[in-house]
Design brief:
- The complex is a heterodimer of chains A (449) and B (112).
- Helices cover 69% and strands 2% of the residues of chain A.
- Chain A has 449 residues and is mainly α.
- Chain A has a single domain, classed as Ammonium transporter fold (Orthogonal Bundle).
- Chain A has a two-stranded antiparallel sheet with strand order 1-2. Chain A has a two-stranded antiparallel ribbon with strand order 3-4.
- The radius of gyration of chain A is 22 Å and the shape is globular.
- Chain B is α+β, with helices and mostly antiparallel strands.
- Chain B has a single domain, classed as Alpha-Beta Plaits.
- Chain B has two helices and six strands.
- In chain B, strand 3 (42-46) and strand 4 form a beta hairpin.
- Classes of the chains: A mainly alpha (449), B alpha+beta (112).
- At the A-B interface, helix 10 and helix 11 of A face strand 3 and strand 4 of B.
Chain lengths: 449, 112
């Protein structure tokens, strides 16, 4: 079975390579051909391209940032296993994005739910602008910018099953989840012809596609995978909050590319998204800290950085559509709402170890609702007005899209995990969980004497 | 020869080291330890989860001395480590059978 799989993969790779080479040749010949055509050729804007490429690098940095953010929150015996679950998404998702992921997500529409296979192996995704997605930058710049989103999203889910998931199963989970949850959802919301995009729901940088999808899948995962051994009986404190802090700082930094870059251009809209991203994050760091201070009596560092991440999550869908004052309200509310959600976890009895549900699921849902409340055409004429700007219809589109993303992510993730559980097993054995993933799964230690 | 082993509050280390140095003690081993005694632990919060911390972080210092310096060293440590609150720690004094300096092979008081 294993051998068969690897042979199939090799054949697949080779055939893609052939397509790729054919495509390279096409690119060279197509450039002079385009010049001869009479229709005005789309022109690459260097400023836009520079900003999107830099944003791509910023978003790339978020995945290692997430690795540190999560890595600091687990016990020391699991630090490398946790870091690897985030980091290796850069490897796996990059390859499948090139092979078929980009085509499924953004390729020519099939029935408003998925892209077709025309862009398999990036066939036809060249260096000329694509009028649908990237009118002023090379199509490949848009492709790789979007790739980084596809990379970090499944990594976010790992917070729900930290310290107990089998690495081999995780690799396959990455492939299945991206294929059956992320690519379709990205197409619904961002692909030309996607039904949520047609519905008029707004998601600037991934409230639905990234945060609701990962946060809700995290809920399904926490339920299916089950609690860590000894959960709520023995202490499971974060082993290195300074590491978590560094991760949060990288996330905040990278998020300027995540939201600012989602303008897919350099200029007014990118600036507006950049500004409100920062403001909402600052507000949420304060409000989580204050909420915790009032309830528990101490303002914690982990609380402040968790609040910052909650603010980043919440402003994500709204970032291209709201103004600075709205972003303060969105951020303040995000910190408090996510703090309450995280506290609720222990009452509900599931072990979402690093609060992927409470921060990404709940924060993303609040952000998508807030977009329906605070969006304003004065900020982005291509957007819409929200409820507080005299238009109730946007909010109803937002609610439909939220419901769809919740149900779809939850159900498909549940099915994927049930199948993996029955075939490969989801969890490491008890002994491995006891000694820790670092030693049991990876044969190394994060720290030596 | 005696060995003095003292469990102290971590922030008292510098004061004790300085006082012992003035007394003529020119070597010391310090270890970070955790434990509990009459001082109860405390509660820490991580994202709303409460953890009862039973083991309190302390420092253990170890000094080996000729017999005649022992009493003075003990009283210096007691004086400097004291805050008057529960959790100031304890001092243990042990007899030492022999000491060997690895580099030279010196033994006994000469090796202190």
């Amino acid at each position: 079975m294993k051998r068969l799989l690897s042979i199939l993969m090799m054949i697949g790779l080779l055939s893609f390579a052939n397509r790729g080479f054919a495509e390279d040749a096409q690119v060279e010949t197509s450039v002079p051909a385009a010049v001869e055509q009479t229709a005005p050729a789309p022109k690459v804007d260097t400023g836009d391209t520079a900003w999107v490429l830099i944003s791509t690098a910023l978003v790339m940095l978020m995945t290692p940032g997430l690795a540190l953010f999560y890595g600091g929150m687990v016990r020391r015996k699991n630090v490398l296993g946790t870091i690897m679950q985030s980091f290796i998404a850069l490897g796996v998702i990059t390859i499948i994005w090139v092979l078929y992921g980009y085509s499924l997500a953004f390729g020519p529409d099939v029935g408003h739910v998925i892209g077709n296979l025309d862009w398999l192996g990036l066939k036809g995704v060249g260096l000329d602008p694509n009028p649908d997605y990237s009118a002023t930058i090379p199509h490949q710049a848009f492709m790789i910018f979007q790739m980084m989103f596809a990379v970090i999203t499944p990594a976010l889910i790992t917070g729900a099953f930290a310290e107990r998931f089998k690495f081999k199963t995780y690799l396959l989970f990455l492939v299945l989840w991206a294929t059956f949850v992320y690519f379709p959802l990205a197409h619904w919301v961002w692909g030309v012809g996607g039904w949520i995009r047609n519905l008029g729901a707004l998601d600037f940088a991934g409230g639905l596609v990234v945060h609701i999808s990962s946060g809700v899948s995290a809920l399904a995962a926490a339920i299916v995978v089950g609690k860590r051994k000894g959960y709520s009986k023995e202490p499971m404190m974060p082993h290195n909050i300074t590491m978590t802090f560094l991760g949060a700082a990288l996330l905040w930094f990278g998020w300027f590319g995540f939201n600012g870059g989602s303008a897919v251009a350099s200029g007014a809209l990118a600036t507006s998204a950049f500004v409100v991203t920062h403001i909402a994050t600052a507000a949420a760091a304060l409000s989580w800290m204050i909420a915790e201070w009032m309830q528990r009596g101490k303002p914690t560092a982990l609380g402040a950085v968790s609040g910052a991440v909650a603010g980043l999550v919440a402003i994500t869908p709204a970032s291209g559509f709201v103004g600075p004052m709205s972003s303060i309200i969105i951020g303040l509310a995000a910190g408090v709402i996510c703090y309450m959600a995280v506290n609720l976890k222990s009452k509900l009895g599931y072990d979402d170890s690093l609060d992927a549900v409470g921060v990404h699921g709940v924060g993303g849902t609040w952000g998508a609702i807030a977009t329906g409340l605070f969006a304003s055409k004065a900020i982005n004429s291509a957007g819409n007005d929200g409820l507080f700007f005299g238009n109730a219809s946007l909010l109803s589109s937002q609610l439909i899209s939220i419901g769809a993303a919740w149900i779809y992510s939850f159900v498909i993730t549940l099915i994927i995990l049930k199948v993996l559980d029955a075939t490969m097993g989801l969890r490491v054995d008890d002994q491995s969980e006891f000694v820790g993933l670092d030693h049991a799964q990876h044969g190394e230690s994060g720290y030596t004497l | 020869m005696k060995k003095i082993e003292a469990i102290i509050k971590p922030f008292k280390l510098d004061e004790i080291k300085k006082a012992l140095h003035e007394l003529g003690v020119n070597g010391m081993t310090v270890t970070e330890v955790k434990g509990f005694g009459r001082q109860k632990g405390h509660i820490e919060f991580y994202r709303g989860a409460e953890y009862d911390i039973n083991f309190v972080p302390k420092l253990k210092i170890e000094v080996v001395l000729p017999d005649e310096m022992t009493d003075k060293a003990v009283s210096v440590i007691q004086e400097k480590a004291k805050t008057g609150e529960i959790g100031d720690g304890k001092i243990f004094v042990y007899p030492i059978e022999n000491i060997i300096r690895i580099r030279t092979g010196e033994r006994g008081d000469a090796a202190v």
